[in-house]
Amino acid sequence: MLTSPLTGPSGAGDLGGVDLESVVAPALVVTNKNDACPVTRPEDAADLKKRLVSSERVRVLFFKGGNQPLTDSCDSLSSHGFFGIEQRVIEAVAKWIKHAEK
């Protein structure tokens, strides 16, 4: 499961150098369309899904909204951390996990 995955030009620690093409387990990408962090761009989620070609099950969950940020755009109390919509995100992820186990 990848939540607010590092996809942008971060220089280090992003998923650009990770061999996602060989992942065979179910994969979930979770992002907030309002995430303004430059290294976790929501528009890159579709590209991550395309790279997970060997995974038996891939899903991208897009969320939108949340509370007014209290921190920098790359911190948890912003759209990056699903601030204000945490419960909705948790419920959707739990539902996906439950169905992935079948």
**Overall pLDDT level:** 91
Portion of residues within helices: 10-25%
Count of helical regions: 2
| Rg estimate, integer Å | 14 Å
Principal-axis shape equals: flat
Order of helices and strands: EEHEH
Report the span from N to C terminus.
17 Å
Poorly predicted ranges: none
Can you count the beta strands? 3
**What structural class results from the helix and strand content?**
alpha/beta
Number of domains: 1
| Proportion of residues in extended strands | 5-15%
Largest sheet properties: 3 strands, parallel
Provide the spatial order of strands within the biggest beta sheet.
1-2-3
Write the layout of secondary structure elements.
Blueprint: E1 2-3, E2 27-32, H1 45-51, E3 58-63, H2 86-100
Parallel strand pairs: 1-2, 2-3
Describe this structure in words.
The protein has 102 residues and is an alpha/beta fold. It has one domain. 22% of the residues lie in helices and 14% in strands. The protein contains two helices and three strands, in the order E-E-H-E-H. It has helices spanning 45-51, 86-100, and strands at residues 2-3, 27-32, 58-63. A three-stranded parallel beta sheet has the order 1-2-3, with helices on both faces. Strand 2 (27-32), helix 1 and strand 3 form a beta-alpha-beta unit. The longest helix has 15 residues, at 86-100. It is flat. The mean pLDDT is 91.
